[in-house]
Amino acid sequence: MNRRSETINKKRGNISLFTCAFLLLAQSRSTYAYPSAAGACYGGFPGAVGGNHIQSGSTTMEALAGGFEVHIDGPNFSGGVILPSDAAVDIQVGESYKMSLVALGDQFFRGFLIRLGGMVNTIQALQPLDDKSQIAYRCIDDEGVGGLSHTDRDRKTTASGILQVDTVTDNLLLEITIVKQNNSTGSIWCYSNF
Questions:
Q1: pLDDT digit string (tens) for 86-100?
Q2: CA angle, corner 176, sides to 175 and 178, nearest 5?
């Protein structure tokens, strides 16, 4: 083999290696763009977080303890109410409810996931209401449930969406994960379910 064909074969080998690495990374859950959406949509604690979020030095708490509230406003919640963690909430079938994550006082958050799972199809049950929220496609694609997530990692004091359930059921679980910080000094995040 001459020098030119050795160079071409080496380049082909490098291209093949690069292509394989790229395809593996593209299929990996961990490469999903965390700054612009939740990287996963697993149910239960810790749910949407992993990696850096659960390493030593991370802080986890309930949303209310972390300085955050979940507000819901709709037909049977005149003027809106604050959802208490682990509480059952009656939602009327076919009615729209505005749901908001709210940071209290000087608090803020950078990322979030609102996940609605249950015994019925919830994929269409959550829709974004502002430019800070988007459909969480990881929830739809990977878990077959409805979800909303952040659009960027900028500081936020509110984020809103619409909740509308079109099938009667007693077994819906609304899970909310809020990320305040995730960097080299540690991770601060909250998880609550309703």
A1: 777 788 889 999 999
A2: 155
